[in-house]
Specification:
heterodimer, A: about 70 residues, mainly alpha, B: about 450 residues, about 0% strand, elongated
């Protein structure tokens, strides 16, 4: 019966490893695939700060300051 | 708080010990002179004197039942109860349930489970009431959800909805650590069979398999497998599984420290990549697909887990996700705890096998931890990115306790080294791993 149990041990560990290893492979592959076809999902949400946007902000702040001083 | 609890326990002991002592004495005298069978009861109503009524009532009290155990009595489920189990056994079991309350309240060990289980055990040991039998409310709960393995599955849905698989997706390789930790299960199977062969315990192959699943450190999986392969051992197995899960911070660190050097414990792991929501949403579907292809036997457990996770990550059914994470899992935990507690009845728990289960469960748990750590060392040798072997110990499921322990042991060596999120990867992979192991057992037996 011990031999039987050892056989089950190898079978069991084999299947567990096979399953999780396959899962690792599939997940890596899925990641690459997603990166290729849906790159927009992986982009960091960087604050868009081109020159014109920044100038607009400066203008708004100056206007607010003026408004405060004058009133 | 603690002093008061100790005072309370002392007071309890003052009450319990005399009852136990009286019961033991009367039990010993009872064995010398076997009880004569009761007179056949007549159908017609006879007028009774008041004394007779009092005597009859006295015979319906718990004190009488505990003091006067009878030979050949069967409980409501049709299993025989020995006089020992009826008298001293009940008192011992009631004391054990109080120990469970103490652990849950004063020590904070898995109170969510130990309180319902303990109270279920308390109710199960009430003489004459037959709460755990047919028609008794816990008996009915047991039939409704444990006998047909419904409750563990429902718990798994909740677990799926509560688990964020992001850390695993960020570093999928760590899933192999979760696989290695399952060696606790299969290694113990061999150990249990060997011990039975040597004549120390008397476990069949199925019993041994069921007991070894404790090494997966996963409560619902243990209950699921126990009710399928070894229903008689369910109580002791569930108690062992849940208490060892609660004892993770005590059991694991010595093993982890013994197997690693301080340098290895100081290893820093690289920061992980970003995981997109799309990936998280596809993950449950991918895992389920693999299950369908490779091991359909474990699809009840993994199916429920992935369903819960899909509900969570789809982000469009917030209400369902919240229900799974809170109301459903809480309600089922109450039912599961009480029904599992019913197996703490003296006639089921006070058997020699219990000791073997508690012992083998601990061995399973330790082997699992060790295997995870060793696998971590091997992977560290062969992998391009450094892997701290400590996170291997989190490969036994016990989410999120095992990951926290790995993090804490790492911090003891280097307080700036945060391993928590890295350890969550093997931790959640361990849940999948033990569900797969359970599926293997189901396909064998």
């Amino acid at each position: 019966m011990i031999i039987e149990a050892i056989k089950y041990m190898f079978l069991g560990m084999g299947i567990v490893f096979l399953f999780l290893y396959l899962m690792v492979v599939v997940l890596e592959w899925q990641h690459k695939l997603l990166l290729k076809y849906f790159p927009e999902h992986f982009e960091e949400e960087k604050p868009k700060s081109d020159r014109r946007e920044r100038l607009k902000k400066v203008a708004a702040i100056t206007a607010a300051l003026h408004h405060m001083r004058n009133s | 708080m603690r002093r008061r609890i100790i005072q309370f326990l002392l007071a309890l002991a003052v009450v319990m010990i005399p009852i136990g002592a009286i019961a033991t004495v009367s039990h010993m005298t009872k064995q010398e002179q076997p009880v004569t069978t009761q007179a056949p009861s007549s159908q017609e109503y006879e007028s009774k004197s008041f004394t007779e009524m009092l005597v009859n009532f006295w015979k319906q009290t718990g004190i009488y039942a505990i003091l006067n155990p009878q030979e050949g009595v069967k409980n409501a489920r049709g299993d025989e109860i020995t006089p020992f189990q009826q008298s001293v056994g009940r008192v011992i079991m009631i004391a054990i349930t109080f120990v469970l309350f103490y652990l849950a309240i004063a020590k904070g060990f898995e109170p969510l489970l130990l309180i319902p289980i303990g109270f279920g055990g308390l109710l199960a040991n009430i003489p004459l009431a037959n709460i755990i039998g047919d028609g008794g409310f816990i008996g009915e709960l047991f039939k409704a959800g444990i006998e047909n393995e419904l409750f563990p599955i429902l718990i798994f849905m909740g677990v799926g909805a509560m688990t964020d698989f992001g850390p695993l997706l960020a570093n999928p390789k760590t899933a192999l650590l979760g696989a290695a930790a399952q060696f606790g299960i299969f290694g113990t199977l061999v150990g249990a069979v060997a011990l039975s062969q040597l004549g120390i315990f008397d476990f069949s192959l199925q019993d041994a398999a069921a007991i070894s699943i404790i090494g997966g450190a996963d409560g619902p999986t243990t209950v699921f497998i126990a009710s399928k392969l070894a229903p008689d051992l369910l109580g002791a197995m569930a108690v062992a599984a849940y208490s060892y899960m609660a004892l993770v911070p005590v059991i694991q660190p010595p093993i982890m420290k013994a197997l690693t050097t301080p340098e290895e414990r100081r290893i820093r792991m690289t920061t992980k990549r970003k995981v997109s929501q799309l990936e998280k949403m596809l993950f449950p579907l991918t895992v389920l697909l693999l299950t369908i292809l490779i091991l359909p036997e474990s699809s009840p457990l993994i199916g429920a887990l992935t369903f819960g996770n899909f509900v969570r990550e789809s982000k469009v059914v917030e209400r369902l996700s919240k229900t799974l994470q809170n109301e459903l899992i809480n309600i089922v935990t109450i039912f599961l705890g009480l029904s599992v507690g019913s197996k703490l009845a003296a006639e089921y728990f006070l058997v020699p096998e219990t000791l073997g289960i508690l012992l083998l469960g601990l061995v399973a748990f330790s082997i699992g931890t060790a295997a995870g750590v060793i696998m971590g060392k091997i992977m560290n040798k062969f992998s391009k990115e450094p892997i701290n072997p400590l996170i291997g110990a989190a490969g036994v499921s016990a989410v999120p306790m095992a990951a926290r322990v790995a993090n804490r042991v790492g911090m003891e060596e280097d307080p700036t080294n945060v391993l928590l999120m890295h350890a969550m990867g093997p931790n959640v992979a361990g849940v999948i791993g033990s569900a797969v192991a359970a599926g293997v057992y189901l396909s064998i037996f």
